[in-house]
Amino acid sequence: MAMLSTCIIPPTAPHTHTVIFLHGRGDSAKKFMSSFQEWRDSESRSLADLFPSVRWVFPQSELRAAAKFPGARMSQWFDTWNIANLHEKQELQIEGLKESVSSIKVLLDTEVNRLDGQWEKVVLAGLSQGGATVAHTLINAPKALGGIMVFSGRMPFPGRPLAETRMVLGLTGVPDDDSAVRTTPVLVQHCADDPLSRIQNGREVRDSLSNFGCEVEWQEYPTGGHWFHSPGGVEDAARWLRAHVFEEKHT
């Protein structure tokens, strides 16, 4: 499996954690990294500002054929026939999702090795289709992560038990039990006015992962569209990271 190309925001303090952040369909790692840095709290601080010891890694998805547009190729983690309804011709999602999850697992191994094998120091995050890919990476991960964060996301192949959901991609190196899933904290944020990934999609992510045994924190905002909520979303994400990843529960 070839290593994905990445864009990096390096830590400005001694490196303690890594966040791997996946862009949405049609976007690029470079543009998404730039947009991410514009996501600010009420004091105009980005997450990179708030967590200077974090290495922020933005992988670039492959250019994949888009079945709905013959001859077209686009930056996407997996193909989708109808972005408003992932259930329609959902079999189109399998090949790309399988390849993307496998590639993210390779990237995970690399970042974990940078942190001396400490899986709990690595967080997976994704926006939109990136969030969908992150969710499936978690359920196929060999060990528990520090956490996952899903923004404006969707859940491919929902409504199945964990074992059956894993069987959809049929990846190797997947644990037989659910301990990694149950012990990885999850944050799901979604804006109620999102016109591309409806609020029901975010709730489906929440409910699916909760049914797998995840500890999910759900944060819903009235406005923000198909994007991060600002400034409240960044402040809530920072609080969640401190509580569940950096374990600053009593500070």
TrEMBL record:
Any Gene Ontology CC annotation: cytoplasm
Location of the Phospholipase/carboxylesterase/thioesterase domain: 7-241
Family matches, as Pfam families: Abhydrolase_2 (PF02230)
GO MF, one annotated term: carboxylic ester hydrolase activity
InterPro entries: AB_hydrolase_fold (IPR029058), LYPA1-2/EST-like (IPR050565), PLipase/COase/thioEstase (IPR003140)
SUPFAM superfamilies, sorted: alpha/beta-Hydrolases
PANTHER family documented for this protein: LYSOPHOSPHOLIPASE-RELATED, PHOSPHOLIPASE_CARBOXYLESTERASE_THIOESTERASE DOMAIN-CONTAINING PROTEIN
Family: Belongs to the AB hydrolase superfamily. AB hydrolase 2 family.
Protein's recorded name: Acyl-protein thioesterase
Native source species: Triangularia verruculosa
